[in-house]
Amino acid sequence: MNGGTAHRATWAQQFALAGAYAACYELARHVSFSHWILPAGLRLACMLLMPRRYWAALAMGETLPVVESALMSESTFGAAWALSASTPIMLLCMAWMLPLRRRWDIHDSQGHVRMGFMMTATLGCAVITAVATTLTLVTALTDNPGKWPEISVVTYFWAYLLGAYLGALTLTPSILALRERASAEKVVTLAAIWRSALLRDLLGWAVPALAGLAWLAMATENDTARQLARMAMMLPVLAMAWRHGWHGSAIGGMFASVALAATGTTLLDPAMIRSQVMLALLISGCMLAGARVTRNASQRAQPRPSGTSH
Q1: Is the dihedral of CA 148, 154, 156, 160 positive or negative?
Q2: Which residue stretches of the chain are H helix?
Q3: Is there a single domain that holds both residue 80 and residue 147?
Q4: Which CATH number characterizes residue 134's domain?
Q5: Are 153 and 282 within one domain?
Q6: Sequential pLDDT tens for the chain (310 residues)
Q7: Domain count within the chain
Q8: Domain boundary at 170, 203, 233, which?
Q9: Rounded distance, CA 256 to CA 276, Å?
Q10: Do 98 and 152 belong together in one domain?
């Protein structure tokens, strides 16, 4: 009796997780575009943090919405496109992530995030996402020759690569940072959250500055002023990284990425893409440097064995 109940509970957990992931996936997909793909971040965070026994539920949760979307648009883009679009990218990324997860955990023996491992996983999944999405685009163009002559496959490939990489940097590091900060607290309370210096800086000046710069970029008619406002969004990320290490880089980078995406006026805008490339490089560099500083500080803070010379 107990064994059967445990078995049914496990299946219930799998289906609940699949449904929750499908809902989050749909939400992330509906606010994404070709060079800002938030599902890439959701996908990577789940594969990094969820035990592998739940990966089947994640794959099922992504399969349901992509198959539904493919069936709804099959008449527009063709049967080959529908077949390609029905393949969940989660499955392809799992083939890359599985050997990595078998070899390494996201945290080292001291509990620190392995930032090099996370960046390797991010880049690999971004390449897989870009290749798979580009192949799906090619099937649509092949089945409908001459229908969209303005589309450049090469241009879209690089846009998809940027979108998957920046989308992953927007969500995954922030989820890891929040999880690490929550784990450091014995009991997570509203009072403890409100006392957080990171939260005070975020609400006190980082988010207002980013919101003001985003408003300026959207309100101005001057292209130079718009681009300067976009580039200035990197300053709060640098300040947050300086004050709070890689946690500040991750959370500040998330809000900067959202603010930057909100200023988009046209798809594949070269100026917008240049800003996103710079932001992606900045977030990556700040997190790598911040994680190294945190690890070194932790090692220095460890007590030395008695008798060790100074």
Answers
A1: positive
A2: 2-30, 38-49, 55-77, 79-85, 89-103, 115-143, 153-184, 190-194, 197-201, 207-219, 223-232, 234-262, 270-301
A3: yes
A4: 1.10.1760
A5: no
A6: 444 444 444 888 889 999 999 999 999 999 999 999 999 999 999 999 999 999 999 999 999 999 999 999 988 898 999 999 999 999 999 999 999 999 999 988 888 889 999 999 999 999 999 999 999 999 999 888 878 888 899 999 999 999 999 999 999 999 999 988 888 776 666 667 777 899 999 999 999 999 999 999 999 999 999 999 999 999 999 999 999 999 999 999 999 999 999 998 888 899 999 999 999 999 999 999 988 887 776 666 565 555 443 4
A7: 2
A8: 170
A9: 10
A10: yes
Range of the domain at 197: 185-296
Compute the distance between CA of residue 53 and CA of residue 151 in angstroms, rounded to an integer. 41
Burial 200-223 (b: 16+ CB within 10 A, else e): ebbeeebbebbeebbebbeeeeee
The first and second tokens of residue 69, run together, are 């979307």
pTM for the whole thing?
0.90
Instruction: Report the candidate in 3, 93, 2 with the shortest Cα–Cα distance to residue 48.
Output: 93
Q: Encoding tokens for residue 58?
A: 């994640």
Q: SS3 of 107, please?
A: strand
Identify the domain boundary among 144, 170, 196. Answer: 170
Note whether 74 and 16 are same-domain residues.
yes
DSSP per-residue codes, 54-90: GHHHHHHHHHHHHHHHHHHHHHHH-HHHHHHHTS-HH
In a domain, 176, yes or no: no
Q: Residue 29's CB: how many other CB atoms inside 10 A? A: 16
CA 275 to CA 138: how far, in whole Å? 27
- Check: CB of residue 272 under 8 Å from CB of residue 279: no
